[in-house]
Write a structure and sequence with these properties.
Layout lengths: L24 H4 L1 H20 L12 H25 L14
Length: 100
Amino acid sequence: MGHATNTGPLVCFERPERSPCLAGLEAKDPDAYHAALAIIEEGVRTLEARPRADMEGFVPAEEHLQKQQRYETRREIEMRNRAAIRAGENIGDPACCPQP
């Protein structure tokens, strides 16, 4: 087996009972099939409660929201600084060097 033999996802959260990882398991070992199906169904409930970032309803963690806000603030400052440089102005950094 190599990387070229990727068979795709083995778990189907839309229809857990059709997950490829369960194929043939029900006939061989019904108890194992039901246990595995229960694990996949628990995964479905988890995704409904906490969607992935690529899913509708995703809400980032508070820490990430704060980091994103800091990034946006710094980006705005950087854009103002670049515009001032292009215009030949010297606006300085008001946080450390207030203009007279």
